[in-house]
Specification:
single chain, 98 residues, mainly alpha, Arc Repressor Mutant, subunit A, 3 strands, 11% strand, globular
Length: 98
């Protein structure tokens, strides 16, 4: 079975991108959001991925990924859960604009 790639909602490109990149001056947050959206399969879905993996796969530093995730959680675009302090976090992409 071939997995169909999720289609980005127009909101992501038309509103979220200018907001995070232009207003917040946080292009890394937009990059991390799009990466999580793609890998999770769309909004409302979860993905278990480490900071190191996100850093390698986005080309960002680990600290940039951490800062991006903090910003995304603060803005309500991503929710993160940890089973334990050393466990790989589970991220859920939120569709807060709906």
């Amino acid at each position: 079975m071939v997995r169909k790639a999720p289609v980005l909602d127009n909101y992501v490109i038309e509103t979220l991108m200018p907001d995070l990149i232009g207003h917040d001056r946080a292009p890394s947050a937009f990059i991390v959001f799009v990466k999580l959206w793609h890998d999770a399969g769309g909004p409302g879905r979860q993905i278990e991925v480490s900071l190191s993996t996100l850093a390698v796969e986005t080309g960002l530093s680990k600290s940039s990924v951490q800062a991006a995730l903090r910003r995304l959680r603060k803005r309500g675009f991503v929710a993160t859960k940890h089973a334990s302090p050393t466990a790989i976090p589970v991220h859920t992409v939120q569709a807060v604009w709906r």
